[in-house]
Amino acid sequence: DGGITQSPKYLFRKEGQNVTLSCEQNLNHDAMYWYRQDPGQGLRLIYYSQIVNDFQKGDIAEGYSVSREKKESFPLTVTSAQKNPTAFYLCASGKRELDTGELFFGEGSRLTVL
Amino acid sequence: AQSVTQLDSHVSVSEGTPVLLRCNYSSSYSPSLFWYVQHPNKGLQLLLKYTSAATLVKGINGFEAEFKKSETSFHLTKPSAHMSDAAEYFCVVSVYNFNKFYFGSGTKLNVKP
Fold first, then answer.
1. Chain A contact for B51, CB < 8 A?
2. A75-102 pLDDT tens trace
3. Fewer beta carbons below 10 Å: N end or C end of chain A?
């Protein structure tokens, strides 16, 4: 089955540590996205990538970094510079085409800073 | 500029009664509009989408939405709520050819037995 796989589902981090969240898709989509979800705030865009080896900052990129070395993979690193990293993180992918299609989402990763 | 406003943060209905979740959008271009559903600690699943074809869009699980350009609305409805409909619902707008998506803040639907 085609889809998006995020791992780990739950992650605990001590303050000052960097952590990397994995996102893999086998949908052959060009575009991939990372969102952060906090209660009552909807989804906020962290980074997105429309093609391999290229990515752009979203609305809340500070304290995060990404890479897009392969079409299938778009890992997100939450660095120690992120002041309030406890949140639910969602990865999504979509077709990069003129007639905008929908986003497909992974199951999410919940990060808790201890 | 593009934005989405979901008019109710919480909606509570009884099982078997109609559901109405309200969404207004603002877009400088012809928008694509979507409704997604999210169950606790899960990803988002597409319910339905409008992409400039028919203004009344039917989705999964008996949901439908009507695009009203004059009112800049895209409200989600279902004739009869089921307990399994209890979840959070997001209205999303996307702009043609920009591949960016703008999310509403979500509406939590509670279904009472």
1. yes
2. 999 998 888 999 999 999 988 665 557 8
3. N
